[in-house]
Amino acid sequence: MDDKRIYADAHIHISLDGENTKKLRAELKEKKYDSIKEILQRYKDKNIFMLRDGGDNLGASLAAREIAITLGITYKSPGWGICKKGGYGSFIGKPVGDISDFKESFKELLKVRPDHLKIVLTGLVDFESYGRVGGIFFTFDELYYMIQSAKDKNLPVMVHANSSAAVKMAVAAGADTVEHGYFIDEEELHMMAERGTVWVPTLSPLGNLIKNGAGRYMNQIPTIKKIYEEQCEKIKRAADIGVKIAVGSDAGSYGVPHVCGFFDEVMHLCDAAGTVLELSHLGNKRIMPTINSEEDRSHS
Ligand SMILES: [Zn+2]
Predict the structure, then answer these.
(1) For 207-232, what is each residue's pLDDT tens digit?
(2) Under DSSP, is residue 139 helix (H, G, I), strand (E, B) or coil?
(3) What architecture is domain 6-299?
(4) How far, in Å, from the CA of 150 to the mean position of ligand 1?
(5) Domain spans of the chain?
(6) What residues have their beta carbon closer than 5 A to ion ligand 1?
(7) Order of all β-strands in the sheet with 291-292
């Protein structure tokens, strides 16, 4: 990749580092940021000059944003994600019990100047059982309230949502981007095309396990393959009907290394679409472009 193009990864977690997450998080807890600096330098070396973080509960993405400035990288941080007490996601966000908790957390969040709001609406895709995703943690009214609160402050909203019902809820409530979106259905794809909602389908966490060996998920490979192939079909369909798709690797998650994850994701997306996708057709400029010219970058 010795061209002049500038790449963007629309979904990373700088607080996670695949199999080394434990070690990294121990450093971050002590506010040691050498690893973050090193990771960001490697992004820069590969022309990845825009990163959008999915959040963490250690202030890592906020620290990364400061370090990124010194490297000329545009780094978008949500501060921390909003997740539900007792639900999934306490390491990528701070849990809230109800809307009054959210109001408190959001007030605190605004103090750290988030670039977007991240809401964890569902759990992860369950590799043990096809179609299971572990619940929807907020009601529509709660989700709508949180999204509107962000919009009142001109913040875009990224919603982590798996399952048809959850994606439908997220899109109807006004999410700007749907993250993951496994088990998405035809109806949601049409809604997204109509509303301009961007889909970040994060193929790499599953695609890399299939391609590189599944490690701790060895026994779940048949289910993972089935889920992955279905996601690929939906991406093809989404591209056909005009849904905006962005490259977001979920780098930092298991099996998805930083930097390399971006190129993995591009490869998986091209495979899914059955064609070499023109990268400039992916992504949404307003939220997180995949590729930008130098000129564009100087405006952001
Ligand atoms: Zn993520």
Answers:
(1) 999 999 878 888 899 999 999 999 99
(2) coil
(3) Alpha-Beta Barrel (3.20)
(4) 20
(5) 6-299
(6) 54, 250
(7) 74-76, 48-53, 6-12, 291-292
